[in-house]
Amino acid sequence: MTILEEPLGAGVFKIRLAGRFDIAGAERVDLKLTAMTASPRRAIVIDLSGVNFLASIGIRSLLTIAKAVQGRGGHLVLLDPNPLITRVLEIAGIDLLVPIVRDLPTAVAQVSAP
Amino acid sequence: MECLEIGNQLDELERTGHWVREVGGRLGLAPIALADLDLCTQEAVTNVIVHGFKDHRDHRITLRMARVDSQVAFQIEDDGIPFDPVVATIPAPPEGLARAPVGGRGIQLIRNYMPHCQYHRRGGKNLFTLLTQTQPLASRP
Question: CATH for B2-86+105-139, among 3.40.630.30, 3.30.200.20, 3.30.565.10, 3.40.50.300?
């Protein structure tokens, strides 16, 4: 599991996760993911297009940071998970809690909203 | 039938995943079915390791896989505390992100992906069996 941060300007940050988001993967990225989504950042795009496996531990990590960002008045969206990962998110009900968007311009617009 | 014995440590999950994908492929699981089984076995084995033992001792967990007609059966046998994932309560959908619990979705995933899962308690052991079709229903003749 890898993690890569990309500032997009105007306070928006894209964080790309790739690989297997299982217990081992979560352990590998948790500290950096927490740091990259920490206050005062309020506009976060989590790019899931490179994630090929998502277990409930990965869902836990995503929800934890989404709740933290929302708690300080910010926005976080999930960008372009593949069909298998989308299905996991839908079955777990995460799509009802955190927006899933399919392209970067839409993601940036959503997290930049006041 | 193929078997793998693991310990009740989380670092056994990687070995479990490799074994499930290798054996599942050999038993004829289509890629999507294999991905579904990979996810559910990781969730089920994680539950056993994390929640199944309260004595802080080493325990052995036996995993079995077999092809049964057009299905592949995966079974976990452990001597942990009795627990039936088939009837365990699944939390109601939360009312918004702020109220949503961050955890507890493993069993929900298993029961959605593998609705024909079965549980038995026998001889002081939990036996939890997942059943999956080798091919997605739409693609079968």
Answer: 3.30.565.10
User: Which of B21, B97, B108 would you mutate first to test chain A, the one with the most A CBs within 10 A?
Assistant: B97
pLDDT tens track for B21-78: 999 999 999 999 999 999 999 999 999 999 999 998 999 999 999 999 999 999 999 9
For the domain A2-112, what is the CATH superfamily, name and number?
Answer: STAS domain (3.30.750.24)
Say if CB B65 and CB B72 are below 8 A apart: yes
Task: Report whether B53 contacts B8 (CB < 8 A).
Answer: yes
| A75-110 pLDDT, tens digit each | 999 999 999 999 999 999 999 999 999 999 999 999
Q: How far apart are CA B103 and CA B77, in angstroms?
A: 24
For chain A, give every domain's residue range. 2-112
Does ipTM top 0.95? no
The answer, for B88 touching chain A at a CB cutoff of 8 Å, is no
**Cβ <8 Å between A97 and B35:** no
- What does pTM read for this prediction? 0.93
Would you list the domain boundaries of chain B?
2-86+105-139
Contact (CB, 8 A) for B16 and B83: no
Number of cross-chain residue pairs from A and B with Cβ atoms under 8 Å apart: 62
Q: Which residues on chain B are in Cβ contact (under 8 Å) with A64?
A: 102
Chain A: residue nearest B93 by CA? A93
